[in-house]
């Protein structure tokens, strides 16, 4: 069995959470170097010596931005995501989720795994509301499900989430559903989430989200 985070309970269920959410680790992106134009505005109208000083400041700012870009690039390249690190959300089958055969309707599984991804982001301090307030959005561009065995009335289960990759505007997840307490595999899934700007066009994964996801899924905790 893979090492994983302590489980959290299904929101809205009668069961109380058994542990803390994942720690909202804060990786802050370094502040951008002062722009060349700002230095020019401050020093305009000075002597030749001042203008030479301006050029020096511009060169220094440009160099700082270059080093900063290289540093961020190296951080992303060096981040090694763990293949055994999962976020887990415990849930239980509700009567309204059953079909006429007494098993969970196949479309309900999509809601289960979507709920787990939402809880993961919330646990890291990134809520849907905060994304919307920033004028951005997120969408699911691809979802693949493989059903292995059905969940039945009253069953308890766990939804597991693993970060596979962050690339450009996309976040790739692997998700599993297992019964509790015997951990029988119920469903395997892969999901691709896309970050969108205010015009609902794909945009690079939001820096805070990328940093927190990568730190959490690469940590040894």
Q: Report the structural category.
A: alpha+beta
Strand content: 15-25%
Radius of gyration: 23 Å
Order of helices and strands: EHHEHHEEEEH
Q: Considering DSSP H and I runs of 4 or more, what fraction of the residues is helical?
A: 25-40%
* Multimerization state: single chain
Regions with pLDDT < 50 over 5+ consecutive residues? 1-6, 11-21, 23-77
Report how far apart the termini are.
16 Å
Outline type: globular
Q: How many strands, what sense, and barrel or not for the largest sheet?
A: 6 strands, mixed
Number of strands: 6
Q: Strand arrangement, largest sheet?
A: 1-2-4-5-6-3
Mean pLDDT score:
77
How large is the count of helical segments?
Answer: 5
Topology, please?
Elements: E1 8-9, H1 36-43, H2 48-78, E2 87-92, H3 108-123, H4 128-133, E3 137-147, E4 156-167, E5 170-179, E6 185-196, H5 207-218
Parallel strand pairs: 1-2
Antiparallel strand pairs: 2-4, 3-6, 4-5, 5-6
């Amino acid at each position: 069995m893979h090492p994983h985070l302590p489980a959290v309970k299904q929101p809205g269920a009668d069961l109380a959470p058994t542990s803390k959410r994942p720690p909202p680790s804060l990786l802050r992106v370094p502040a951008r170097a002062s722009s060349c134009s700002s230095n020019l505005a401050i020093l305009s109208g000075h002597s030749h010596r001042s203008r030479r000083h301006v050029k020096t400041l511009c060169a220094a700012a440009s160099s700082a931005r270059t080093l900063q870009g290289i540093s961020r690039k190296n951080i992303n390249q060096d981040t090694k995501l763990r293949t055994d690190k999962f976020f887990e959300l415990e849930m239980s089958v509700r009567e309204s989720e059953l079909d006429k055969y007494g098993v969970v309707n196949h479309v309900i599984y999509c809601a289960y795994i979507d709920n787990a991804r939402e809880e993961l982001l919330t646990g890291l301090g990134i809520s849907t509301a905060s994304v919307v307030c920033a004028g951005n959005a997120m969408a699911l561009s691809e979802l693949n499900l493989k059903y292995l065995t059905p969940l039945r009335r009253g069953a308890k289960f766990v939804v597991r989430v693993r970060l596979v990759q962050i690339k450009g505007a996309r976040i790739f997840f692997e998700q599993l559903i297992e019964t509790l307490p015997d951990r029988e595999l119920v469903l395997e899934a892969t999901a691709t989430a896309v970050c969108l700007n205010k015009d609902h066009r794909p945009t690079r994964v939001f820096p805070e989200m990328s940093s927190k996801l990568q730190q959490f899924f690469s940590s040894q905790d």
